[in-house]
Design brief:
Number of helices: 20
Helix content: 25-40%
Strand content: 15-25%
Radius of gyration: 24 Å
Bound molecules: thiamine diphosphate
Structural class: alpha/beta
Shape: globular
Length: 520
């Protein structure tokens, strides 16, 4: 039997190491869905909302370093999907998006659900195109995959008119050869590293080999390491050369090593606004290099070129260690988020994957978790709410042997938490920890500080444990820290997803800030 475009594309994806596609099905890519389902090496994950599909594909790409596929239908599906594409773009995650478009004969007539998808995604994606003929689809898929994976990784979006998928096609296109990467000036960096008093690296490389090289290089050459925003697993946070996480609200004493740096190497990450602390760094006069793509080779060469030297980072590391040590807290109203993080960290395995949403609660996770193992943190560097639950579901499906915990506020849980149903269907027992404070707490903080009063931030009381049971998961309600250990222990032995509905104190906006103080 002759093949068609859809089957040929799926064959190419399997050959490229892709194992899963995430979607809400649509009429505009029926043959593609059929080809995914028929391919034994592929798992087709049907999600409850396209944002879930795109967050799942993004999270799998982050976890495995190999892209996953997100698929959606024409304007409405693509609009729903777009949030995860933006996340992949800002988070530098390889990802492939295949969109069904209106039929080629109906293009350009504002047909049913028609949107110019290539144009729509151009500012959101690394690469974006629409197929002009059925025969060029395999070559465009090859180009999209190459773009997603090489240089700075990112999302590549291909829109395919619906009639092209069934067109006869037997010829997969070869993937283009990997483009030559820019070579960093290793000899010059090695010379400066030898001479520097305070060399500092800001790391965001997730790759296991790169992380091992980074630890060895830091120990041999004596440089301090900061981690980039939400890339805390790039370097062990308990290492004596660890200087801190360049996230939100970093205390001044943790920035001193960055301020004093006479050599700064930004490694395996973009120099985004949060990591760069509102673009305040590097200070003028700091010699700075950016090595984004060839991290392992660069570090290997640096270790053989630069001279071994030891430097004392105890002042910087003590500052960060003190900051990361959770205080003993006596609760009055509701559970304190610090106690949630502390209890979970103690009870779950060291190599658990922790996904997090955007929200105030995440500040407690970033501060107190202490990431020590590779590939353990998946957070949205673009601050997209709704990320944590779908990211956890994809992580558990892709890596079933690891414990996966999603940390999410009640706001974020109500955006994409319905993907727990997807986890139930795929037998993916994730643990979802909902910090229920009845508020869009982050926005309440900003409003209280700048307006002195609140607007549009209230969230009604939700029984998340019943909601979880309705979706086929186990549900636990926790009203005081004393109940945490038993609930987490029970969730860890569940063979279905669990939701921990934790009633937190709405007054506790951050470790330092109380809502009542700001409004009084
Ligand atoms: C998709 C999206 N919409 C809106 C925002 C703006 N935003 C940032 S945090 C936040 C509130 C989060 O509330 P919740 O999930 O309950 O967590 P909390 O801040 O209360 O801990 C909002 C609305 C965002 N980051 N992403």
């Amino acid at each position: 039997m002759g093949s068609n475009v859809a089957r040929t594309v799926v064959r190419m994806l399997v050959d490229a190491g892709i194992r899963r596609g995430y979607t809400v099905p649509g009429e505009s890519f029926l043959e593609l869905l059929d080809a995914f389902e028929a391919e034994p090496a592929m798992t087709l994950v049907s999600t409850r909302h396209e944002s879930g599909a795109s967050f799942m594909a993004e999270a799998e790409g982050k976890l495995r370093g190999i892209p996953a596929v997100a698929m959606a239908s024409r304007g409405p599906g693509a609009a729903n999907l777009s949030i995860g594409v933006h996340t992949a773009y800002q988070d530098e995650t390889p990802m492939l998006v295949l969109l069904g478009q209106v039929a080629s004969t109906r293009l350009g007539r504002e047909s049913f659900q028609e949107v110019d998808l290539a144009a729509f995604f151009r500012p959101l994606a690394k690469w974006s195109a629409q197929a002009g003929s059925a025969s060029e689809v395999p070559a465009l898929v090859a180009e999209a995959l190459s773009s997603a994976r090489t240089g700075r990784p990112g999302p590549a979006v291909l829109s395919v008119p619906s009639d092209f998928w069934s067109a006869p096609c037997d010829a997969p296109a070869p993937l283009p050869p990997t483009a030559a990467q820019d070579e960093p000036p290793v000899a010059e960096i090695a010379r400066l590293m030898n001479e520097a008093e305070s060399p500092v690296v800001v790391a965001g490389c997730r790759d296991r080999a790169a992380r091992e090289q980074l630890i060895a290089a830091s120990e041999e050459l004596g440089f301090a390491v900061y981690t980039a925003f939400r890339k805390q697993d790039a370097f062990p946070e308990d290492h004596p050369n660890y200087a801190g996480h360049l996230g939100l609200a970093v205390p001044g004493d943790q920035l001193k090593a960055l301020e004093r740096a006479d050599l700064l190497v930004v490694l395996g990450t973009r120099w985004d606004e949060v990591t760069a602390q509102g673009f305040r760094y590097p200070l003028e006069g700091t010699t700075t290099f950016h090595v984004d793509t060839t991290v392992v080779d660069f570090l290997r060469e640096l270790r053989t070129t630069a001279t071994a030297r030891s430097r004392d980072w105890s002042v910087a590391h003590t500052a960060v260690r003190d900051f990361m040590t959770p205080p003993d807290i006596v609760e009055t109203t509701g559970v304190h988020p610090t106690n949630v993080v502390r209890t979970l960290r103690r009870l779950v395995p060291e190599d658990s994957v922790v996904t997090n949403d955007a929200g105030n609660f995440s500040g407690f996770l970033h501060r107190y978790w202490c990431f020590t193992s590779p590939h353990t943190q998946l957070g949205p560097c673009n601050g997209a709410m709704g990320y944590a639950v779908p990211a956890a579901v994809a992580s558990k499906i892709a890596d079933p042997d690891r414990t996966v915990v999603a940390m999410v506020g009640d706001g974020g849980a109500l955006m994409t938490g319905q993907e727990i149903e997807t986890a139930v269907r795929h037998a993916a027992p994730v643990i979802v920890v909902v910090f229920q404070n009845g508020l869009y707490g982050t926005i309440a903080l900003h409003q209280a500080k700048s307006q002195g009063r609140l607007s549009a931030v209230g969230i009604g009381a939700v029984d998340f444990a019943s909601w979880a049971r309705g979706l086929g998961a186990a549900g636990f309600t926790i009203r005081s820290s004393r109940e945490l250990e038993a609930a987490v222990s029970a969730a860890l032995v569940e063979d279905r997803p669990s939701v921990l509905d934790i009633r937190t104190d709405p007054d506790v906006l951050t470790s330092e800030t109380r809502l009542s103080q700001l409004l009084s």
